[in-house]
Amino acid sequence: MEWTAVTVTTSSEAVEAVSYILTNEGAQGVQIDDAADFAQLKPGRYGKHGEIVDPTTIPHRTSGAAVTGYFLANTFVPELLPTIRQRVAKLRDYGLNPGDNEVTSAVVDNQQWATVWQKYYHPLRVTNELTIVPQWEDYQPEQDQEKLLVLDPGMAFGTGTHPTTKLMLMALENVIRGGESLIDVGTGSGVLSIAAKQLGAGDVQAYDIDEVAVRFAQKNLDLNPVAADVKLGVNSLLDGIHTQVDVVVANILAEIIVPLIPQAFANLKPGGHFLASGIIDDKAAMVRQKMVDQGFVIDSETKMGDWHGIIAHKPTEDED
Fold it and tell me: In terms of pTM, does the model score above 0.70?
């Protein structure tokens, strides 16, 4: 089976936004080649036979990023290219650097799609307890508290290597104590839901507006038996959802977080936590103020590069 690969050359900070644009335009999966990922790697057992390899010797980008979306062969891609280029350029309006915004296309076969990113993606310890492992790696935990998040990184964005996802994983590790009910808004690859279950969360619901993302999130959930009972579905933010949970998590762009804030507040129990990331530097003050105006109490704010992650909670009656 043949696919058309559309590659956007961009900046590291824009990879998740560009991934969303490509899937929104019909890409059946995305591949991310980000120079920033290699900055996190240390010598390890990355060789085909478990031998120790220095990541600096592996061919990789030295700056910026390339995001590739894979489109079905019957998609008329030339018609999509100007739209993709225009939408990526518009990321400047949201405070994101679109980088070179060079958009190219090429025909690839199924085998290329299945293996091309494997040379770039290796086990990555992202928090004290959580390690992200691509499904083809035979990786064993090195410490008792280490928990594995097994992912197929070629299928959807949000695979743990981007700062926004790392901020959310750290926030989950900070908040989850065991048994919490949780909603994952804009689940993407499903990584945050899997992490929540690994950390001991109870009932977890995960939603994404993109049907393609939901399908591939399910594939990632299936790779992690601990996440077998996650309830996954297609939904726009928390529209039509009326429940009371302990935690709401969202790793999405700031402009999308803003309309989610009142929905998160309404769906949280008193004392419940709202964890949000995907917030670029110049939007952080605005998002923080919107949360406070809604009634949230800001517990902490963490920054990684140009990105912010916020932990807030809904006050209890004693705090009012």
Answer: yes
